Amino acid sequence: MADSSTSLIVDYYTVRHQEALRLQSRPSGRLEWQRTCELLDGLLPAAPARILDVGGADGAYARHLVAAGHQVRLLDLVPAHVAQARSGVPAIDADVADARALPEPDDAYDATLLLGPLYHLVDRGDRMTALAEAVRVTRPGGLVVAAAISRFAGPLHFAATRRWSESIAREARALLTDGRNDGRIGFTVAYFHRVEELVDELHTVGLAGVAVQGIEGPGWTAAEAAVGAPDAETVFHDALDLARVYGSEPALLAASAHLLAAGVVPDGTT
Residue 66 above 60 pLDDT? Predict the structure, then answer.
């Protein structure tokens, strides 16, 4: 299902950005990594579960799940990511695929993860297709977990890292009504969610019991602002504790850079 955006996204992750380094390079990435692992460990069924990691990049989360005893298959749009997943330790079962057309049979997995595809599907119809595909390949009673970028993540990050400007202010105002990223400022083809929008999308594809967590919590900007300071690690760990305390607090969800939503595939008996 390649379209005009696909080549831009593949080029970004192949040439301009090293996803394998992102989760360890800055405080926000470290928070995202640690909290996502913690949240997945709490959400997913007991090992060994069959898990499909859609948009799993180089396999960082897949390896965490394999170490926990799960059976994981990874699919990603970017061939370089798939090569990294296959060549890492342990090697991950991985193939190139589009989240909107998964090459997997119905009801094949206990849980399906979308920890990246919704970031880059700017049209609601494409996001709904990807979510519906995740539902299709997950067994009744299984779990679909989807990550999204918060509508406010970009401007908050620019402010925390002392890069605020009039162009960023204009982008922040535009994002209040339009979640599409302005690629002239940075990143690539991307969509930023409001919390209620993400919940609605999971409900619309029929998922039950939908709940959202704020991954990094409201203190991630403080950790970013403290980079280079003598107490940077103290601020980081305080931000991590804050994320654990307020991760599910509705009033603070959108303050996180990323959101993690989960819902159950109905079993058809109710």
Answer: yes
